[in-house]
Design a protein that fits this description.
EC number: 3.4.13.19
Cofactor: Zn(2+)
Helix content: 25-40%
Family: Belongs to the metallo-dependent hydrolases superfamily. Peptidase M19 family.
Strand order of the largest sheet: 1-4-5-8
Number of helices: 8
Shape: globular
Distance between the termini: 23 Å
Keywords: Dipeptidase, Hydrolase, Metal-binding, Metalloprotease, Protease, Zinc
Organism: Friedmanniomyces endolithicus
Radius of gyration: 19 Å
Order of helices and strands: HEHEHEEHEEEHEHEHEH
Strand content: 5-15%
Length: about 260
C-alpha cells in the first residue's frame, strides 16, 4: 500500500520490525483444483523475491531473520528492522505441503490459514460474493482433515499458525476447543495477526469472548486490528451501540482479563 510505510517514519517511531506479508488475493474461480491455484503460487514467489531483493538492496536496514536468535541479534546488535515474511491464505501453497516447506526455506515464518475464501484446509470468516465481502457459510465446519495434517507440519517446521480471517469454527478447532472432533488443535500457540474483539464490534472476522479465553489457555497472541471496520463498525452500516467517545479505560483488557503483553 503506497505511502503506508517508509524508513524515516519507521526509525522515528522506534519500530523494531514487522512481518512482511507476501499477499496474493483469492482466486475468482470456484473450487480447490491445483490448476486454479498455480498462478497464485507464482505470484507468491514473485512477492517473496521482491522482499528478498529489498533486503539485499538495503542490508543496513532490513534482515529477513529466520530465527528468534537471529532476529534478536540483528535488532539489538546491528539495529536492523526485523523483517520475517508471511503468507495470507493457504490458497497460496497450491494444495502442496512441499510448497509450504519451500516458503519456510525462503523465510516465511507465519501463514494465515485463509484469506477471504475457503480452501482445502479451513473455513474463512468472510467470502467474496459478486465483488463484496460477506459472512461465509461453513464448508468444512472448521479445519478439515487435510488441515489437521498441514497444521502439524507447520508446528514441525516452526511456522506460526495465524487465525486472522478464519471462521469461528476454525479458530476453535485450532485452539483445541473442539475435542469432540477427535483433534486437539495446534501444538504451538497460534496468533491473530490483525483481529479485534467481537464483543466491541460484531464484525465476522473479529474474535468472540469464548475464543479469547481459549487464546489465554493456549498462550496465544491477538494483535489488534485498528481498521475502522473492526473497531468502530462504521463500515457495512454495523453498529455496536457504543458512544463515539469512551473512557480511556475501555480496552480489550475488559473483554478478557488475562493480558500479559501489550505491544
Amino acid at each position: 500500500m503506497y505511502g503506508h510505510f517508509d524508513l524515516p517514519r519507521a526509525k522515528a517511531g522506534k519500530m523494531g520490525g514487522a512481518f512482511w506479508s507476501a499477499f496474493v488475493p483469492c482466486p475468482t474461480e470456484e473450487g480447490f483444483a491445483n490448476e486454479i491455484y498455480a498462478p497464485y503460487v507464482r505470484a507468491t514467489l514473485e512477492q517473496i523475491d521482491l522482499f528478498q531483493r529489498l533486503a539485499e538492496q538495503y542490508p543496513k536496514y532490513f534482515t529477513l531473520a529466520r530465527s528468534a536468535k537471529e532476529a534478536e541479534h540483528n535488532f539489538y546488535k546491528e539495529g536492523k528492522l526485523i523483517s520475517p515474511l508471511a503468507i495470507e491464505g493457504l490458497h497460496q501453497i497450491g494444495n502442496s505441503l512441499s510448497t509450504l516447506r519451500l516458503y519456510h526455506q525462503l523465510g516465511v515464518r507465519y501463514a494465515t490459514l485463509t484469506w477471504n475464501c475457503h480452501n482445502l484446509y479451513a473455513d474463512a470468516a468472510v467470502v467474496s460474493v459478486n465483488g463484496e465481502s460477506v459472512a461465509s457459510k461453513p464448508y468444512h465446519g472448521g479445519v478439515s482433515k487435510a488441515g489437521h495434517d498441514l497444521i502439524l507440519e507447520m508446528n514441525r517446521l516452526g511456522m506460526i499458525v495465524d487465525l486472522s480471517h478464519v471462521s469461528v469454527d476454525t479458530m476453535r478447532d485450532v485452539l483445541g476447543g473442539s475435542p469432540e472432533k477427535g483433534w486437539n488443535g495446534s501444538l504451538a500457540p497460534p496468533i491473530f495477526s490483525h483481529s479485534s474483539a467481537k464483543a466491541l464490534c460484531p464484525h465476522p472476522r473479529n474474535v468472540p469472548d469464548d475464543i479469547l479465553q481459549l487464546v489465554k489457555k493456549r498462550n496465544g497472541v491477538v494483535m489488534v486490528n485498528f481498521s475502522p471496520d473492526f473497531v468502530s463498525c462504521r463500515a457495512g452500516n454495523a453498529s455496536t451501540g457504543l458512544p463515539d467517545f469512551v473512557e480511556e479505560t475501555n480496552t480489550i483488557e475488559h473483554v478478557v482479563e488475562h493480558i500479559m503483553h501489550i505491544g
